[in-house]
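WARN retry 2 of 3 for item q-0093 after timeout on previous attempt; input resubmitted unchanged.
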Amino acid sequence: MWRIGQLARMVGVSERTLRHYDKIGILVPAAVDRTTGYRWYGVAELSRLERIRGLQRFGLPLRQIAELLDAPETHLRQALTETVTNLRRDIATLAATAAHAEDHLATPMSILPQQATVGPRRLRVRRVRLHHPSELGTICPAPPATLLTWLRGQPTGAFAAAVTTRGTGEQLSLPARTVVRAVVPPSAGVVRAGEDLFGWLHRHQLTITGPTVEDHLMDADGAHAVVLEVTVDPRCRGAHAA
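OK item q-0093 returned
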């Protein structure tokens, strides 16, 4: 039999850890001296402690370890399968985060795009045909207003656009969809932000499947903001049609 300090040194854990394991009931001493309060551990407790430490190396929390210590091997294998799945998902998420940060470092941009799911919208619009992006500013009314363009990249000729109207106009319905969204900071122009956004989509091989929505917003204090949204299909990655 070993006292708590001896067992702690043998295994490489702290006495505080062993007391905590005793408190939560996953490693109870073989005996406790009623007079001195000393905890005594035997071979069974040593084996159980090593199993606890082995399960911790798999990344399992103590709550789950407590359920698995005396469970059949099939339960342990199922828990480990779920752990591997979660770890692989976390690794993929971290890899994507690192890739986005590296992309921003390699190609400085005026915006920070992010993917989101948005609900359906109904707009009343007036359609126009333009020859250059600089003409967009001339057709967009004072905020709040929405401008739509059907582009897959920088225009090389005339292109279709639409702008919301407060009177009569064509009713346009946008379904629920996945978008890449970016808020245009005051220091960047909308044209530059649009160029940066299309460049980002191209580098990430996201297929554009709908119009670019340019929302010109204004809050109660009169401050303006522009939000760009490009409809994409996250399942389809490939070349962007012009």
